[in-house]
What we know:
- The structure is a homodimer.
- In chain A, 51% of the residues lie in helices and 12% in strands.
- By secondary structure, the first copy, chain A, is of the alpha/beta class.
- Chains A and B meet through helix 4, helix 6 and helix 11 of A and helix 4, helix 6 and helix 11 of B.
- The structure holds a DNA duplex.
Amino acid sequence: MKTTLLGTEPPVKSVTRVALVEDQKELCRQWAGIIDTFTDIECVGTCASGEEAAERIPQWAPDVILMDIRLPGMSGIECTSRLKELLPATPIVILTVLDDDELIFRALEAGADGYLLKRSKPVDLRAALLDVLNGGAPMSSAIARRVVCSFKKTSPRLAHVQLSAREAEVLKFLSRGFSNKEIASQIELSVETVRTYLKSIYKKLHVRSRTEAVLHYGSSRPGSPP
Amino acid sequence: MKTTLLGTEPPVKSVTRVALVEDQKELCRQWAGIIDTFTDIECVGTCASGEEAAERIPQWAPDVILMDIRLPGMSGIECTSRLKELLPATPIVILTVLDDDELIFRALEAGADGYLLKRSKPVDLRAALLDVLNGGAPMSSAIARRVVCSFKKTSPRLAHVQLSAREAEVLKFLSRGFSNKEIASQIELSVETVRTYLKSIYKKLHVRSRTEAVLHYGSSRPGSPP
DNA sequence: CGTCATACCACCCAAATGGGTGAGTGGATT
DNA sequence: AATCCACTCACCCATTTGGGTGGTATGACG
């Protein structure tokens, strides 16, 4: 991170410019103060609402955006989503007081690149800002834990259920949204045979519909949409 | 090697006991050496294969397990999965040379609690071990970035499609695996009405089945299974 | 005031789905 | 030889589903 080409050339890109979105004035000043503490980071502007942020921040073109998740009117998540459309390359770090699962995942889906608890120490804030600029995804440990846990959930059941090779294959196509007919033609089987496997999959997984099967046991992540 | 119960006082739980799984002897010794460098962490044993680990580690009952992901025979992922069944409370941190997406997610699904690149510095290793014991989920930044990115994927399309309140509600239940009948009773509507919304959702999302709708636009993560 | 979007419901029809039974092949185990 | 299991397929039946068309009521917007 210290690409300091020292000597005679201009040290142009040395200061990281941060924009802050936070509705509570007092807090807002505090954070801005903390940020300006660091010599290599500065706060280029603050917004008190998502609407204001969506309008003004693109003009500031900051290097990073710090976003409170609880905002009056447009939520921090919605705002994140909009800003990501306007400034796809600008990392957004969410600030929050509580570590609510629902909010975390919605924010990450909206395109947030980091997720910090407000109680984080100034040093950690600085580390997070630099990290996110380096392609990292800074998260408070409590958050990281939740994110990681969200992966575990689906597996334990699948681990205990032993599907045959064919069954697994059918499930794979199933979780890509194919119909029985399409699956049949993909793996060169009779539709009836596909249905037979479907039934046995349902029994093993204790579900009653393809949607349930996909939801609980789909290989979701690795598979990429067509 | 450092269980020195000295004097009269009981400083019992001061040392963190680590087990190491790594097939390359040389690397194994190196890592063990690094670990024993720290006064508050010790390496209680090493295994050269997944099979050995599954058998011996439960007896050692370490505080943390460090696991190489590339192992001959049983993979580190499979091994993680087994050890998690035997020692559900013992955090497992994966060590890897490369940051392959597929492996990361498979490991996390298997129950891994942290994911470090082998090139991590000793200081970071120590921080990670302590972090994971404190309920964190230590990850190298490159890894964290990939994990976070895996959440983004589904959203962009949804952002451009404007569903009405009811439609969104129906989609929510849809992506929990409910049938039309169940959705209807949940939101107190006629099944026919649910079907009407379904149809309009399909049109807006350009899909032809509930499974497709759920796959591409389901709020997947936040929803918890019944 | 007309138009439009949304919410709500109903009926029709064809296809897809879920659930069951049965049955033949071939490989592996016992 | 007997058994078990994975794999393959077919037929039956009731229900669900996808895809139309239609209708009423409400409120917003011009």
